[in-house]
Design brief:
The complex is a heterodimer of chains A (about 150) and B (about 80). Chain A is of the alpha+beta class and about 150 residues long. Chain A is globular, with a radius of gyration of 23 Å. The longest helix of chain A is centred in the middle third of the chain and has 16 residues. In chain A, about 20% of the residues lie in helices and about 10% in strands. A three-stranded mixed β-sheet of chain A has the order 1-2-3. By secondary structure, chain B is of the alpha+beta class. Chain B has one domain: K homology (KH) domain (GMP Synthetase, Chain A, domain 3), CATH 3.30.300.20. Helices cover about 45% and strands about 25% of the residues of chain B. Chain B contains three helices and three strands; from the N terminus they run H-E-E-H-H-E. A three-stranded mixed β-sheet of chain B has the order 1-2-3. In chain B, strand 1 and strand 2 form a beta hairpin. Classes of the chains: A alpha+beta (about 150), B alpha+beta (about 80). At the A-B interface, helix 1 and helix 3 of A face helix 1, helix 2, helix 3 and strand 3 of B.
Chain lengths: ~150, ~80
């Protein structure tokens, strides 16, 4: 999972060489500290923490798959919001094998998707969801003229 | 970027061997197709597409860093 964090961070920073990930075992979870070049801090956090949260989402799933829990901290051991390290949020978690990974994620509301970058015209993100064409009304309603 | 998607997907599926990513140039953007085992589809999409969107977010940033644009399709 350390590699996963490093891979994700290295893909998005300007100075991949300066990406450092350390891991630390806490009682029932692993804390990953991600440090990057100062100028890259904004990139790994993102507007309103969007990038950081995307990395946390994936890390969380990877951790659950391995039957553990993981927390990602960015910077010098302090979360980007300036809050103390997050306490475990699910003390009732049973680390046994779970199949419904996505059901384990807290239903946090999805943040509004603002155009964070000048991403140009909106793309169809999921064109695999092909909408069924609207059923055309049958044009057989033409009435025969009465004889 | 292909490696990034493969890495992210392999970290969260039950069958990492069945993760296949193909890329395809389309006009000014790269379309990545991610295929996983049928039983892993739910994992890479996630509830309400949360996992898929997390991967897309990171892919988008990685693409922008390279002066490109990328789309991730799953399935």
């Amino acid at each position: 999972m350390k590699d996963l964090v490093a891979h994700m961070a290295q893909a998005i920073v300007d100075y991949p060489d300066q990406v450092v990930v350390t891991e630390e075992m806490a009682e029932d979870h692993i804390v990953y500290h991600l440090t990057v070049a100062d100028s890259d801090m904004g990139k790994v956090i993102g507007k309103q923490g969007r990038i950081a949260n995307a990395m946390r989402t994936l890390l969380k799933v990877a951790a659950i798959r391995k039957g553990t829990r993981a927390i990602l901290e960015i910077g010098e051991g302090v979360s980007p919001r300036g809050l103390p390290p997050r306490a475990p949020t699910r003390p009732e978690f049973d680390a046994g094998p779970r199949r419904d990974v996505e059901a384990d994620l807290e239903p946090e509301p999805e943040p509004e998707l603002e155009p964070e970058f000048d991403a140009g015209p909106r793309r169809d993100v999921e064109p695999e969801l092909e909408a069924e064409p609207e059923a055309e009304p049958e044009p057989d309603l033409e009435l025969e003229p009465e004889p | 970027m292909k490696e990034l998607i493969e890495y992210m997907a392999r970290a969260i599926v039950d069958y990492p061997d069945q993760v296949v990513v193909t890329e395809e140039m389309e006009d000014d953007r790269i379309v990545f197709h991610l295929k996983v085992a049928d039983s892993d589809m739910g994992k890479v999409i996630g509830k309400q597409g949360r996992i898929a969107n997390a991967m897309r977010t990171l892919l988008k940033v990685a693409a922008i860093r390279r002066g490109s644009r990328a789309v991730l399709e799953i399935g």
